[in-house]
Amino acid sequence: MSNKNYEENISKIGIKLPEPQKPVAMYLPAVRTNNLLFISGQIPIKNDNIIYTGKLGKEMNIEQGGKAAKLCAINALSVMKNELGNLDRIERIIKITGYVNSTDDFFDQPKVINYASELMIEIFGEKGKHSRVAIGVNTLPLNCAVEIEFIIQIKK
């Protein structure tokens, strides 16, 4: 989308940002330093319920994992808005690190995390393009299928 009003872009694609979820352990949802905002790992939680659990390659397929990744990204957007007051203060999505709860023979972690990457690009356009890591892990907190953290550049 070419519109630079990011919150309007979110609305146009039919997403309503939830209230930020409360941390499930002892950490801050976000930390700001200078013009960077670090978003703690977001999990696929909605209304205090983990929506996507299990391992990719066993209980879940790529599409289900991708939906989990997209929900993680939506939750991250809600944290960003809560921290910044307005998403239009975002200069650029710098980096996404995605963790995928995977079996030993599942190798499509990048395809799963693509769902989050594609959402960032759909909302922020060129400024949504980012560096990225997609990692397969043996387990994640609360048996989540995916967890994603973000680094965001804020406008000065």
What does this structure look like?
This protein is α+β, with helices and mostly antiparallel strands and 156 residues long. The chain has 3 helices and 7 strands, in the order αββββαβαββ. Strands 1-2-7-5-6 form a 5-stranded mixed sheet. Helix 2 (62-84) crosses helix 3 (109-124).
Q: What are the defining features of this structure?
A:
five-stranded mixed beta sheet; about 160 residues; two-stranded antiparallel ribbon; alpha+beta; about 30% strand; 60s Ribosomal Protein L30, Chain: A
Major sheet description: 5 strands, mixed
Order of helices and strands: HEEEEHEHEE
Q: Give the helix level as a range of percent.
A: 25-40%
What Rg do the Cα atoms give? 15 Å
- For the termini, the CA-CA separation is 23 Å
| CATH fold field value | 60s Ribosomal Protein L30, Chain: A
Total count of strands: 7
Roughly what fraction of the amino acids lie in strands?
25-35%
CATH class: Alpha Beta
- The tally of structural domains comes to 1
- What is the mean predicted local confidence, pLDDT? 95
